[in-house]
Amino acid sequence: MSGDKNLNIDLELPFGSKRIAEIVFDVLRVDEEPRRSGVCKKLTLEDTLIKVNFSGSLTRQLRTALNNFFEKVDLITETIEVIGLPKTESYSYY
Amino acid sequence: MVIAIGFEGSANKLGVGIVKDSVVLANPRITYITPPGEGFMPKETAQHHRQHVLSVLKKALSEAKIQTKDIDVVCYTKGPGMGAPLATVAIVARTVAQLWNKPILGVNHCIGHIEMGRLITGAKNPTVLYVSGGNTQIIAYARKRYRIFGETIDIAVGNCLDRFARVLKISNDPSPGYNIEQLAKKGEKYVPLPYCVKGMDVSFSGILSYMEDRTDNLLKEGYTPEDLCFSLQETIFAMLVETTERALAHCNSSEVLIVGGVGCNLRLQEMMSVMCEERGAKLFATDERFCIDNGVMIAHAGAEMFRSGTIMKWEDSTVTQRYRTDEVETTWRDD
Q1: What's the CA gap between B236 and B241, in Å, rounded?
Q2: Does residue B302 have a known ligand-binding role?
Q3: Using CB atoms, which residue from B50, B95, B102 is nearest to A27?
Q4: Which residue of B has its CA nearest to A20?
Q5: Which PANTHER family match (chain A) (predicted)?
Q6: I need a labelling partner for B58 at 20 to 30 A (CA). Which of A17, B28, B180, B334 fits?
Q7: What CATH architecture is B3-114+292-327?
Q8: ipTM
Q9: pLDDT at residue B54 in the model
Q10: Fold (CATH) for A7-83
Q11: Are A50 and A12 in contact (CB under 8 A)?
């Protein structure tokens, strides 16, 4: 397959509240995709919905990126379950 | 008053520590232990941290008996270390910072070791030998930076020991270095090994290859595994003491501090103390609770940064595999 990123995956992740969606989005957006992953990831936040687009040229690479992404989302939501809901409606230390 | 929580997971140790005004409130830690003959790989190590990070966090919070609203700053290891384990732990640090609405600070792992060592031992301005599985550096403080006087030009001293343990299929529990140390106590016959000091720098990969190539034959010739452990330790520790001595003399310092996982090796401490006595210097070292990677070292170094006004932007709460000790300005030191 050619080098251009012609494979696309679009995901939509709904969350229980706007603040939770915002936290998950903020935690995720900091990390860039590893340079050698060959995948481009675009994250957007729309109210309680996180939208993400993965594009790449190899299905193998897309699968890895997708797996890693879900691992991270799971870890964040598990952390919220363990620690409890956010104390404030916004974050003061950007 | 500063209460800080620190997350550490740059290698196979996972720890969460809480400090209040330089007093350790909690410091639980678990280690990812691989079978004899095997090292730890990034992916599996990250998986281990992912599985255990929340239980270690819960343990730290319950041991410290503090209210999360009283925490002033959330600290995590920014680097250096293995990418995947670092990233896993950073995600949890970022999430709790958001949930508690607290500022977040990324801490240099090496700085964590040094500040923890100074806190626990009370050393004021020591020449530091930082020896672990991933790092080997001789460090001294000058004008707002910890400057690297000498370092390994290839693998870390702990990496050399760990990989030699794999050759002999020595157990990785509690750590390969500890088990080598115990075997070495029973060693009697010294095998001459290459001695690789290059100026202020040291090299261990050639010594490791030498051992890897010859171990089978040496065992057949009548040397015991104990003899080999003894010979390796004596040789590589002598190299570290030599370079530390030179840095000590150069800086006119009267204190030596050993930090990092290899630093809890009592034979290394003993050899260093002989050198220190000859020079009228004082040796400072800590035991395995604080030598080996832990959460409190990150919490304490982060608390020092926080007190001196360091602020990190949210976008910068990333991790990096390479992060040199001398990249950090020590805003918390005035000398």
Answers
A1: 9
A2: no
A3: B95
A4: B99
A5: EKC/KEOPS COMPLEX SUBUNIT PCC1 FAMILY MEMBER, EKC_KEOPS COMPLEX SUBUNIT LAGE3
A6: A17
A7: 2-Layer Sandwich (3.30)
A8: 0.95
A9: 98
A10: TATA-Binding Protein (3.30.310)
A11: yes
